[in-house]
Amino acid sequence: MVRVDGTGSDTSLIRIRGLDKTYRRGDEVIHVLQGLNLDVEKGEFVAFMGPSGSGKTTLLNLLGGLDMPSRGSISVAGDEITHMSAGKLTQWRARHVGFIFQMYNLLPVLTAFQNVELPLLLTNLSRAERRQHVDAALEIVGLADRSDHYPRQLSGGQEQRVAIARAIVADPTFLLCDEPTGDLDRKSADEILDLLTRLCREHGKTILMVSHDPLAADRAGAVLHLNKGALVEAQGVGGPA
Amino acid sequence: MKYLRFLRVNLFRKKIRTGLTIGSFAIAMLLFGLLVIVRFAFNQGVEVAGADRLIVMNRVTFIEPLPLSYRDRIAALPGIKSVTYATWFGGTYQDPKNFFPQFAVDVDTWREMYPEYLVPDPQWKAFVDDRQAAIAGEGTAKRFGWKIGDRIPIQGTIFTGNWQFNLVGIYTGARPKDDTTQFWFHYDYLNETLKQEKLRYWIDNPGWYIVKLANPDDAVTLVKKIDQTFANSSAETKTDTEQAFAQSFVKQTGNIELIILVIGSIVFFTLLLVTGNTMAISVRERTGELAILKAIGFSDRFILFFVLAESISIALIGGALGIGVAAGLAKLAMAYGNPLAAVLPLLYLPPDQMVVGIGVALAVGGLAGLLPALTASRLKVVDALRRV
């Protein structure tokens, strides 16, 4: 169960306490996130919604170890990431986080197979083992027959599925999805959402997704609404918002 | 190894741009190679000079001869292993522009003095046995298409007239850098002809002596001793190590080193700017991709080395190409009789200079890639992704 009142158990997969993020613009201090608490258990599908500038993507970046909070703590599977050095954080990301972006962000010079293989290059797996993992990931996203295609030879939906395969190939602790359907037509968006739902339900993946799309949010077990850096509404959570 | 494929596809993602940058390196390194070949051609004598040999010449000027009687007096000095002598003939073959070095040499001592010049025994015996015999270096033989048994007419300029020689041997160099453009014939043939023509100035007066030392460490002492021996005589001597002697010739043609250094520096500085600019554009275009790599878990150091590896690979491919073409051109020219023989007798790119060239190319590649690589490695993922 997702909790936002700071009362989650110590066994929560993701545990956020008193998270603040501020930026300075000249003399002005901008509070992007203010005093956020969140507990997410393994296998949850959480959606973050809110208007532009509400802090959704900043929260995702902090959860992914791409940015550092101004105050507060984030721990994932017992690892306190807010005090990690940049080098340690990079290693941590490789092991624990699968990123899925709105614009897919595949490398255009690599085939679907090679794009999916990228995170595995950071492991000690042999070439044969890497091939096995990549084939399995492409099979899950339904693109086993497109492994030799370059991104330009794929549709937007297919590109995003390759991106999802890349995100899951190293079996990360959780997936961070930043507007995964934002650049897709309805049909392709539904296919991607079906896939994410399946990953959560059948493969037990923990997913945290930012989206503007209410239909996308409907797929999530918990929906958290942010505004001006604070949680203003929560559905499907275990405590009051 | 697992990153090689990734490196290769990134390198050739913009084939024309990469090709042009590699081409810039190749042309710069070709130029470097050609400059080294020219430098070597001028310095060849210095490069091959024997550490254990001294040259004894007339103090007044190199073209003044020395008495033949000096031979025994030099040989008698302690620390001298052997002595030979030669005279510069200065003739041309068929056409005044067909110039090459001809020496009238002492047949009994010449071969021992220069073991780096290889002459098969039967050919040397034929040379010793025939007073009109001559031996040519394989470079000159190739240049004029001579073969053993040919009758070679040489037009004398210092010793005027049409001189005829029987080519009985062709020598090769023990090392690729050895001079194979010389032409040797009997000093006695020259001396006796001069006696018949009563050219007294040159009779029994060879051009210079070459002295082999028992111990090269004694060079400084023996240089002084030889010159002291002939001090206050009618023909005082000036003795030098063979290297210093060769260097004095190079200096007469101007400061080749400086010219090469200036041209080389300009070329490499330009190359640095061109490659640096290319790498900077390449990194800027890939900001998003590099950010993704970092987000996935590739470290800052990996990104740094990855961009550097691209830059260095371009340098390596271009450098090897340019150096290879320069070495190939030199080989080709020598194989086809060296059309530049009159000015640059030996066209050769020494392997150590090829290594230096590749090293310089790699250094330029590394330097050019350093700033873009640092920029890429310091990229903040969040900022970069916001720009995508």
Structure write-up:
The complex is a heterodimer of chains A (241) and B (388). In chain A, 30% of the residues lie in helices and 27% in strands. With 241 residues, chain A is α/β, with parallel strands linked by helices. The longest helix of chain A has 16 residues, at 186-201. Chain A is globular and about 50 Å long. Chain A starts with 13 loop residues before the first strand and ends in a 6-residue tail after the last strand. Chain B has 388 residues and is of the alpha+beta class. Chain B is built from 14 helices and 10 strands. In chain B, strands 1, 2, 3, 4, 5, 6, 7, 8, 9 and 10 form a 10-stranded mixed β-sheet that branches. Chain B is elongated, with a radius of gyration of 29 Å. The mean pLDDT of chain B is 90. Classes of the chains: A alpha/beta (241), B alpha+beta (388). The interface between A and B is medium-sized, with 26 and 22 residues.
Please provide a brief summary of the model:
The complex is a heterodimer of chains A (241) and B (388). By secondary structure, chain A is an alpha/beta fold. Chain A has helices spanning 56-63, 86-96, 112-117, 127-140, 156-168, 186-201, 214-218; strands spanning 14-25, 28-40, 45-49, 71-76, 79-80, 97-100, 174-178, 206-210, 222-227, 230-235.
Summarize the topology:
The complex is a heterodimer of chains A (241) and B (388).
Chain A lengths: L13 E12 L2 E13 L4 E5 L6 H8 L7 E6 L2 E2 L5 H11 E4 L11 H6 L9 H14 L15 H13 L5 E5 L7 H16 L4 E5 L3 H5 L3 E6 L2 E6 L6
Parallel strand pairs in A: 3-8, 3-9, 6-7, 7-8
Antiparallel strand pairs in A: 1-2, 1-4, 4-5, 9-10
Chain B lengths: L3 H8 L3 H34 L4 E6 L11 H6 L4 E9 L13 E4 L4 H4 L3 E2 L2 H9 L3 E5 H7 L6 E6 L4 E13 L9 E4 H10 L11 E6 L5 H11 L7 E5 H11 L3 H30 L1 H10 L3 H36 L15 H27 L3 H7 L1
